């Protein structure tokens, strides 16, 4: 019986070919938007989470508030000072405080150039602590050592050919901020666009090349064993409020852990996704209204057919099921094409981001649950908007239906 319903529904949709396809377009657009946006959004959230997953969890990052977008800690009115490092290390629960400098710069090699960030590396024990916190490991060459001048370690992306046409190798010379440096090592890939594109150089030479005074872009605070993160964080914030003479709620600085930064970014991305989903939902509603309109028109056009079917013994439930399946098929067909198009858009954008924009942030994540869910939703959407027309068709009186067509 169900096979007959489906066959009759397919034949009816074929008979109304152009109108059926125009109706399907509404669902197609909505499902394509939902699938592509969810895929790109999920890929972006995964990529952002990867930027923090490799960091140690026993650290706090202190930054002054910036007045414009740029490297962490830059563009601030009241920057952190080197004396803050010494004072923070005196707080109970703080094991070590490490000042870092991050400068945006141009790196040149093989006649090509790229814009990235240069990060400072401190001397002695603090150098080893930075390597531990960021889990820096070598893919080739060696790490920087105390006393190295005009030597750098590069992120893993510079060991690939897509950046300069040829891969940078240890002992190659690169120009950074117009000065020549020898590459002594390449880092292992971390999946972080920051670390994988970073230039590491010793603090003294970075200050000289970029003409930096005693200010800092950020301070990394590590916790002493046995102390709670929230308690130490509160002590650091209290010190900074006093040192910078600001009241609670008016801070010109931030103290965050890797988990907090990841959660904050994820919440922001989720809010953006929800806004875009609302727009996509509007497209789906429009598509659903199109299905309802098509099915109502079909009921009017097929009044005689309905009357004949009922006079031959068709029950109300048979008529209702037939029209409900038709509307569901409209939604399902629109869903199939929408899924295919949406996945194609998402994968294409991911390819463009990787190939032409050289970024891993723009990527697509298309789980099977999304594909199955989108298909089921499109069928259910079509069925829901077909319920009222199907009920109208089912409750037509056979004599009245035949009389209206004579």
Kindly summarize this structure in a few lines.
With 406 residues, the chain is an alpha+beta fold. Helices cover 55% and strands 17% of the residues. It has helices at residues 2-15, 17-53, 82-88, 125-133, 161-164, 203-210, 229-244, 258-301, 303-311, 316-355, 368-394, 398-404, and strands spanning 59-64, 80-81, 94-100, 102-109, 112-121, 138-141, 151-154, 173-176, 179-187, 198-202, 215-216, 218-223, 253-256.
SSE succession: HHEEHEEEHEEHEEEHEEHEHHHHH
Mean pLDDT: 80
| Share of helical residues | 40-55%
Largest sheet: spatial strand order: 4-5-10-7-9-8
* N- to C-terminal distance: 31 Å
Describe the model.
This protein is 55% helix and 17% strand. The protein is built from twelve helices and 13 strands. It has a six-stranded mixed barrel. It has a four-stranded antiparallel sheet with strand order 3-12-1-13, sandwiched between helices. Strands 2-11 form a two-stranded antiparallel sheet. Helix 1 (2-15) crosses helix 10, helix 8 (258-301) runs antiparallel to helix 10 (316-355) and helix 9 packs antiparallel against helix 12 (398-404). The chain starts with a helix and ends with a helix. The relative contact order is 0.18.
Architecture blueprint of SSEs:
Blueprint: H1 2-15, H2 17-53, E1 59-64, E2 80-81, H3 82-88, E3 94-100, E4 102-109, E5 112-121, H4 125-133, E6 138-141, E7 151-154, H5 161-164, E8 173-176, E9 179-187, E10 198-202, H6 203-210, E11 215-216, E12 218-223, H7 229-244, E13 253-256, H8 258-301, H9 303-311, H10 316-355, H11 368-394, H12 398-404
Parallel strand pairs: 5-10, 7-9
Antiparallel strand pairs: 1-12, 1-13, 2-11, 3-12, 4-5, 4-8, 6-9, 7-10, 8-9
Helix pairs in contact: 1-10, 2-8, 2-10, 2-11, 8-10, 8-11, 9-12, 10-11
């Amino acid at each position: 019986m169900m096979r007959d319903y489906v066959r009759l529904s397919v034949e009816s949709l074929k008979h109304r070919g152009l109108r059926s396809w125009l109706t399907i377009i509404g669902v197609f657009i909505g499902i394509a938007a939902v699938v592509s946006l969810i895929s790109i959004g999920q890929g972006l959230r995964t990529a952002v989470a990867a930027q923090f997953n490799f960091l140690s969890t026993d650290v706090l990052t202190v930054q002054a508030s910036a007045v414009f977008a740029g490297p962490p800690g830059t563009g601030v009115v009241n920057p952190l000072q080197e004396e803050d490092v010494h004072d923070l290390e005196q707080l109970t629960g703080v094991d070590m405080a490490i000042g870092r400098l991050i400068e945006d710069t141009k790196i040149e090699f093989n006649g090509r150039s790229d814009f990235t960030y240069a990060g400072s590396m401190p001397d002695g024990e603090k150098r080893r602590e930075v390597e531990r916190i960021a889990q820096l490991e070598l893919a080739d060459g060696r790490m920087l050592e105390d006393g190295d001048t005009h030597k750098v370690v590069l992120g893993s992306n510079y060991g690939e050919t897509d950046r300069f046409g040829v891969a940078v190798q240890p002992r190659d010379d690169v120009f950074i901020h117009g000065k020549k440096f020898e590459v002594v090592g390449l880092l292992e890939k971390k999946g972080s666009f920051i670390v994988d594109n970073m230039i590491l150089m010793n603090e003294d030479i970075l200050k000289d090349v970029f003409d930096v005074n005693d200010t800092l872009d950020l301070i990394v605070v590590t916790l002493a064993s046995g102390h709670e993160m929230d308690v130490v964080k509160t002590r650091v914030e209290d010190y900074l409020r006093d040192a910078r003479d600001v009241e609670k709620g008016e801070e010109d600085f931030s103290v965050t852990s890797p988990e907090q930064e990841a959660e904050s970014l994820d919440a922001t991305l989720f809010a953006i996704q929800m806004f875009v989903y609302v727009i996509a939902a509007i497209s789906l509603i429009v598509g659903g209204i199109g299905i309802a309109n098509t099915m109502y028109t079909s009921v009017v056009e097929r009044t005689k057919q309905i009357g004949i079917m009922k006079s031959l013994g068709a029950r109300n439930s048979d008529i209702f099921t037939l029209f409900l399946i038709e509307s569901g098929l409209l939604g399902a067909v629109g869903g199939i094409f929408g899924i295919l198009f949406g996945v194609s858009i998402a994968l294409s954008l991911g390819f463009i981001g990787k190939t032409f924009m050289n970024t891993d942030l723009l990527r697509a994540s298309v789980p099977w649950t999304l594909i199955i869910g989108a298909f089921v939703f499109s069928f259910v959407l079509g069925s829901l908007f077909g319920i009222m027309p199907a009920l109208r068709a089912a409750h037509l009186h056979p004599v009245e239906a035949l009389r209206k067509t004579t």
